[in-house]
Amino acid sequence: MRTLIKNGKIVTEAQVYSGDILVEDGKIKEIGTGLSDRDADVIDASGKYVLPGAVDVHTHMDLQAGRYRAVDDFYDGTVAAACGGTTTIVDHMAFGPAGCSLWHQVEEYHRLADGKAVIDYGFHGVIQHVDDSDLKEMNEIAEKEGITSFKAYMTYDFMLKDDQLFRVLREAGKDGIVIAVHCENDGVIGYLRGKYKDEGHTEPKYHPLSRPAGCEAEAVSRILHLAAMADDAPLYIVHLSGREGLEEVIKARRSGQKHFAVETCTQYLTLTDDLYQDDREGLKAIMSPPLRKKEDQDALWKALSDGVLDVVATDHCPFNYEVEKQAGAKDFTVCPNGAPGVEERLRVMYSEGVAKKRITLPQLVKYLCTNPARMYGLYPEKGALLPGSDADLVIFDPAKEKVLTHRDMHSAVDYTCYEGMNVKGDIDLVMQRGKTIVKDNVFLGKKGDGKYLKRSKSVLAE
Ligand code: URP
Ligand code: ZN
Ligand code: ZN
How far apart are alpha carbons 121 and 432 in whole angstroms? Predict the structure, then answer.
């Protein structure tokens, strides 16, 4: 089966050029001008951009977080992703039971995702304690399952202490495994949360005050130093939210530290902590790290424009406002943390980034498609429009305009943080491995059609 996409403006991380793309058996067979194929289905992409299918390397589908479960399972969540132009996710596993083998969550996540996901998917492992057998299993899982990245936390219940982080980084580095780290100083957060609670200050507006930007900066600085001391171990900093943390990143880059990458997320670029002044909007936006200020946003956009950051992901972790989030209505400390975003990312980033000239179109592709694939061992099958790559692509119409609203979205969650946002441009069509899975915001794919991705090693390990 062949499809010919004619006359599109093809966007790569390096350039925008006019051309045709011939797709055969799920792969890009040829890219050129004036291509013809009498037997192929033809899609006219005149006046439209053709982008690689976006890759979201930070989602939490079906996440069990304490008493609460994120409301998107791997079906609803990946339908939402597909309708937002994302054709690959790498999902972060939840913590398993205390003391469990690392295999426990690998098996659990196959149970949750296999036969359900509608787009291609991989997993990041999770390291929640450290002993010899964990380190051995980490290597085994990387080899057998292609799970070549593991996440560690510097806060939350199963946080790792510095000696554990150092040990994990050192061992992972030897095997070319990337450690992705949630960076926040747990001691300060614990103290501030307790203090606000004791004082009766439990409205959503105290959530960001309990997790100041300095907490992130301190932890970012610490993990960068730990990775440097661990023989320059491959490190990936997730969801960077603030200017102070960014300054630590810039310092490390200037010092010549290599083998690390830094992610920010759509919400830190486009929403601010003003939302917490309203209890309702604030509750919806309780996530960690919290939303920051306009100055932080400006610094993050500049860092994207300057190439200091590497990836824009979503940290998609949806809980219903009317149900789970209500737990925090009277006490932010018990509110499940996280917000939806997997469906909104491409539209919001095109409109707020490219249309507002904060980043270029090739940079959009670099941060949402190519770099995430590269960082997590999926390039060039994913994240690129090259002969031989998987035919995962988005046809995007820059002339369209729309108002984002939850009513048009596909996630199981009951709100979007971007309600009412006017966005320039829209997605016409999404193709996965040669098959059109979304057209005009209607999902046409099939449950279980997503393929589990055994990933190669990251470029960070080179
Ligand atoms: O608040 C958030 N981000 N929840 C999801 C888990 C995490 O920290 O990434
Ligand atoms: Zn996190
Ligand atoms: Zn997360």
Answer: 12
Distance 95 CA to ligand 1 centre (A): 12
What per-residue confidence (pLDDT) applies to 361? Answer: 98
What's the confidence (pLDDT) of residue 380?
98
pLDDT score for 1: 85
The residue to which tokens 């610094």 are assigned: 299
Fold of 2-51+385-443: Urease, subunit C; domain 1 (2.30.40)
What residues does the ion ligand 2 have nearby, CB within 5 Å? Answer: 182
Sorted by where each begins, the domain ranges of the chain are: 2-51+385-443, 54-384
Q: Which residues of the chain have pLDDT under 50?
A: none
- At residue 80, the 3 state secondary structure works out as helix
Nearest C-alpha neighbor of 57 from the set 316, 257, 287:
316
Look at residue 448 in the predicted model and tell me its pLDDT.
Answer: 98
Q: Which is the CATH superfamily of the domain at 54-384?
A: Metal-dependent hydrolases (3.20.20.140)
Quick one: three-class SS letters along 155-221? CCCCCCCHHHHHHHHHHHHHCCCEEEEECCCHHHHHHHHHHHHHCCCCCCCHHHHHCCHHHHHHHHH
| Nearest residue (CA) to ligand 1, atom 8 | 288
Residues flanking ligand 1, CB < 6 Å = 60, 182, 287-288, 315, 317, 337-338
CA distance 59 to 90: 7
Closest CA to 92 of 138, 151, 145, 142: 151
Q: DSSP letter at 120?
A: E
According to the model, what pLDDT value does residue 183 have?
98
